[in-house]
């Protein structure tokens, strides 16, 4: 099978490229940079460029669409053009090239409205947010992807939840950096129960989705949340990551109500602050949406992904933390 992987240079993307290549698939890695380790062919390009995508998809049997603008910095147009238009381009190319399998990678944040999520499935995406441009754009993109599933194109949506592991600069990198600088804070004392996904498990889920999806598949047109199935307090997880990195764990406790109010203020004023106050970092340290994510429970029912995708996690959180410690030591 020849598989096009967009966002192939990301943490998950590199893993998917390596996993598919290792099992014998012909992989085309598509990303903004020129190299995607392990890919039989690496193509530099932007998902907003439909012609570049079309050329990369020549001869492919499946697409794993990972490319996205993540984070909380930037305006709506930036998120919309990459996450919505980029997804529409992937769908159009899959149809033009008669590619029957598309795995669209989304996020559980598309269905998170600020309330706790306890043992739920993949609820429908929520739109209409203001300011939280990442989940808003990903929610719209997911709607477009799921609606594109047809008798010719099978589309499955996979939402990996809080992916982390060696090489992670988003979750682990930020936690460790703030702990080193003595600026680590936990919303609500880190008592909220959350599930996370070790990166190898997320990779395995996407490979399983490639195999499971097709125009007549049970999973076609459906969304699935994948995670380790081990809900733990955020405090315990963050402490484990700090221990793996060998940094002191001494967080400040910020009540959820305070964090939400402060996050709302910071997200409005941060883009206007001079560089000497932001350190040149476009990402604000806290937003209202991030505060809600860190201060409320969110863990999910693992059975739908197990039943329809034939996937289950194999690396436990404890084993993942041990691997993370080895990576930091190396």
CATH class of one domain: Alpha Beta
CATH architecture label of one domain: 3-Layer(aba) Sandwich
State the CATH topology of one domain.
Rossmann fold
Q: Could you state the CATH homologous superfamily of one domain?
A: NAD(P)-binding Rossmann-like Domain
The CA-CA distance between the termini, in Å, is: 35 Å
| Low-confidence parts | none
| Percent of residues in beta strands | 15-25%
Question: Averaging pLDDT over every residue, what do you get?
Answer: 91
**Radius of gyration (Å):** 19 Å
Question: Helical element count?
Answer: 12
Question: What is the H-and-E element order?
Answer: EHEEHEHEEHEEHEEEHEEHEHHHEHH
Helix content: 40-55%
The largest sheet is: 7 strands, parallel
Give me the count of strands: 15
Give the structural class. alpha/beta
Spatial ordering of strands, largest sheet:
3-2-1-4-5-7-12
Shape verdict: globular
Describe this structure in words.
The chain is α/β, with parallel strands linked by helices and 330 residues long. It has a domain at 2-164 and 197-227 and 298-314: Rossmann fold, CATH 3.40.50.720. It is 41% helix and 17% strand. The strands form five sheets. A seven-stranded parallel β-sheet has the order 3-2-1-4-5-7-12, with helices on both faces. Strands 6-15 form a two-stranded parallel ribbon. It has a two-stranded parallel ribbon with strand order 8-11. Helix 7 (234-245) packs parallel to helix 12 (317-329). The longest helix is centred in the first third of the chain and has 21 residues, at 76-96. The two termini are 35 Å apart.
